[in-house]
Amino acid sequence: LTADGALQTFTGVAGGALGATGLFTGMIVGVVSVEIFCALRKVEGLKLKMPETVPPGVARAFEVLIPAVITLAIIALIGRGCELVTGLYLNDVISTYIQGPLGAIGATVPGVIIIYIIIMLFWLVGIHGNNMLAAVKEALFTPLMLENIETFSKTNNAKGDDLHIFAMAWLQMFGEFGGSGVTIGLVISILVFSKREDNRTIAGISLVPGLFNINETVTFGIPMVLNPILGIPFVLAPIVTLAVGYVLTVIGFCPKAVINTPWTTPPILHGFLTTGANIMGAVSQAIAIV
């Protein structure tokens, strides 16, 4: 019964909660529930002690039984409490008041620039920037990517106004090709122009991994990390290529990302597949490489 006495039926989980809308909620609930479980697991009074004759694997399973049940109860009560207070399910509250505002801020040109500058500054001091900001970046841009995929499946149009530009695969297409810092451009430049044998050797062994967007040999071999000379282009190069990609997409030259291509897909082929097997996606990524 609702507050006004009307009968309200509930037939199951809404389909939207299992797609892009529910992804952000799933991430938040996953983090919160694990933290609650880990905290409860440390409480000795909640551990079920089994006889020594019980196998260790079975004993460990019973040891965490009470913390697991309490965690489930707490999460369920949070969801129920949210519904009673707001009249909305937890997923609707998060998507409306948290995911929406964050997406509005992050999925903008300034938001993307700030995210990638932070990523590259982490890399500059030897910390994997993409891993450090993965939770933020994926929470913001993966739902947009899923929405693009769903829309494209209905319209088969990769240039529609109802598609998002800053989707996850688009960011990988223009901001991470050849690895973080788009160092594939540096590798090509060294092989074409450089006469230093040490740099040419590193570039030679880095070319094939770079084609699959793996560039630790460049990052730590040249090195890019803590390099006062190459540090500036290392940080700014992805910003420039993202800006180029944004302009090409806004003017309609480059289609939008509608296929969730694996991040290890080689550049140019990645652009072709991500834009729905559109040759202009490949051309646009080639322009960014140049």
Which descriptors apply to this entry?
mainly alpha, 14 helices, 290 residues
Annotate the secondary structure layout.
Layout: H1 20-41, H2 56-63, H3 65-86, H4 90-106, H5 109-124, H6 129-132, H7 134-155, H8 168-175, H9 184-193, H10 197-211, H11 216-221, H12 231-250, H13 269-274, H14 279-289
Summarize the structure in words.
The protein has 290 residues and is mostly helical. 64% of the residues lie in helices and 0% in strands. Helix 1 packs across helix 4, helix 1 packs antiparallel against helix 7 and helix 5 runs antiparallel to helix 12. The chain is globular, with a radius of gyration of 24 Å.
Rounded mean pLDDT is 87
- Strand portion, in percent? under 5%
Separate helix tally:
14
Outline, from the CA principal axes?
globular
Radius of gyration from CA coordinates: 24 Å
